[in-house]
Amino acid sequence: MTQELHIVGGGMAGSEAAWQAANRGISVVIHEMRPKVETFAHKTGDLGEMVCSNSFRSDDHEQNAVGLLHWEMREAGGLIITTAHQHRLPAGGALAVDRDAFSAAITARLHAHPNVRVSHEEVTELPDDGYWIFATGPLTSAALGQAIQRETGTDRLAFFDAIAPIVYFDSIDMSKAWLQSRYDKGETEEEQRAYINCPMDKAQYDAFIDALLAADKTEFHEGETAGYFDGCLPIEVMSERGRETLRHGPMKPVGLTNPHAPDVKPWAVVQLRRDNALGTLYNIVGFQTKMKYGAQADVFRTIPGLENASFARLGGIHRNTFLNSPTLLDDQMRLRSKPNIRFAGQVTGVEGYVESSAMGLLSGRMAAAEMTGASLPTVPQDSAHGALIYHITGGAEAKTFQPMNVNFGLFRPVDGLKGGRRGRKDRYKAYTDRAKDAWSDWLAAQEPIQSAAE
Ligand SMILES: Cc1cc2nc3c(=O)[nH]c(=O)nc-3n(C[C@H](O)[C@H](O)[C@H](O)COP(=O)(O)OP(=O)(O)OC[C@H]3O[C@@H](n4cnc5c(N)ncnc54)[C@H](O)[C@@H]3O)c2cc1C
C-alpha cells in the first residue's frame, strides 16, 4: 500500500476514522493543529480531547438512540467507545469517563498503532489529490474555514448553529393544531399543508412572553462569540426587544385560518415545519434559543397543541462550523465537487461526541474500502449509524439544515406498533432490535480486518 490516508483533525471523529482505516491496513497520517494552534475550548494537545462535558450520554442500547450508537460502535471495535468503557466513572445509566485518562489513552493507542503517524500542523487548504478526511470539528481553524468556503460557496458553511427545538410529530395534539401553509401557498396539497400551526389567544401569548423573559438562559463560552452576527437572534432576545416583536415575526397570525375555530382570529401562531423526509420530526420555526433545556421544555409545553410534546432535540445557539451536507456530500461523505475529500464528525452537521465518533467510524471504513478496492455494503438505514448518515446526506431539509443528534425520530417507523407515549417502550425496543440485526449483518458482510493493533 503506497497511498496514505490523510486525516485532518485528531478529535473524536478523526481519531476514530484513523483507527478504523489503520486496522484495515491503511497507512494513516493524522494532521492535528493543536497544541501549535489552539482553539478557545480545547486545553491540551491530546487526541480525542473532550471539550466540555465528560459524558457520552446514555449507555442504554434498548431504549435510547445514543446508547444504540454505543452498542453499534462497540460491535465495530470502535476506538472511542472501547476506550471510554476502559475509563468509565460511576454515572448511573450514563457513560461518563475520566477525561484526562481517556484522551491520554486515545493518544497512546493511536501513537502505538504501526499504521498511524501523527503530525502536529494546521492544514489550510483542500488538496486536489490524495485521500483525505477532514474532521476538523465545530472549531475548524479560520484559514481552513475560508478554504472550504472558497470551494463550497459562503452560504454552505456556517460558523454558528441556530437550532430550533424539534418535536416528534406523534406527540403534537392535532385536535388543537392544524396543517396549513400561510395563504395556502404552494402548487401541491402537500405544500399547501406543509406547516403545523398552533394558535394562541392574547392571554396565552402574554403568559408565553412572560415565561420566555423569566426563563433561565445559558451564556456563550468565553471567546465563543467571535464572528457572531445578529441574523440568528434567540427568541427570548427578540422578545426582550419588545413584547410584540414575536407577534410581528415568527409568530405572526396572518394568512392562516384555524379549522377548529374558523371564526376566531388567533392573536399569535406558532408554526412547525417538517424536519425530515420521513415526516416524523417537526422544528418550531424561528425558535432558536439559549434558554436552559429544562426551561425550554416547560415554556414550549405552554403552547396550545404542544402540552405533551416530546422533543427530539431542544434548541441552542453555539459556535459551530458545519457544512450544508445534504447539498455538498454524497452518501459516502465525499465532497461532490472534490471526491478525493471526505468530511466526518461535527463539521458534517451531526452534533455530539458520540455522533461525531460514529461518523468518523463510517468515514474511516469508507475511505479504507475505496483505497483497497474492498466492497463495502451500503450502511443500513435501520441502524443508528445509517439513520444519521442518511439524515445528513439526504433525508434532512437542505434549506433549513441544522446540526442533529441521533434520535428515534430519524428511524423509519416499525409497522403495526402503537403510537404516542403509551407505545413508546415497545416502539423503541423494536427500533433497537431491528437496528442491531441490520448493523450485525452489515459488519458480517465486510471483509475481515487485515491488520489490527491493540
Ligand atoms: C464549547 C463547546 C462545548 C461542547 N460541549 C460538548 C459536550 O459537552 N458534549 C458533546 O457531546 N459535545 C460537545 N460539543 C460538541 C463537540 O465539540 C463535538 O461533539 C465533538 O468534539 C466533535 O468531534 P469532532 O471530531 O468532529 O471535532 P473535535 O473533537 O473538535 O476535533 C476536531 C479537531 O480538529 C482540529 N483542527 C481544527 N482545524 C484544524 C486544521 N485546520 N488543521 C488541523 N487540525 C485542525 C482541532 O484542533 C480538533 O482537535 C461542544 C463543542 C464546543 C465548541
TrEMBL record:
SUPFAM superfamilies: FAD/NAD(P)-binding domain. It holds the Pfam family GIDA. FAD binds at residues 9-14. PROSITE patterns: GIDA_2. Its cofactor is FAD. InterPro entries: FAD/NAD-bd_sf, MnmG-rel, MnmG-rel_CS, MnmG_N, TrmFO. Its main location: cytoplasm. Gene3D superfamilies: FAD/NAD(P)-binding domain. It is found in: Cytoplasm. Keywords: Cytoplasm, FAD, Flavoprotein, Methyltransferase, NAD, NADP, Transferase, tRNA processing. Its EC number is 2.1.1.74. Catalyzes the folate-dependent formation of 5-methyl-uridine at position 54 (M-5-U54) in all tRNAs. This is Methylenetetrahydrofolate--tRNA-(uracil-5-)-methyltransferase TrmFO. The gene is gid.
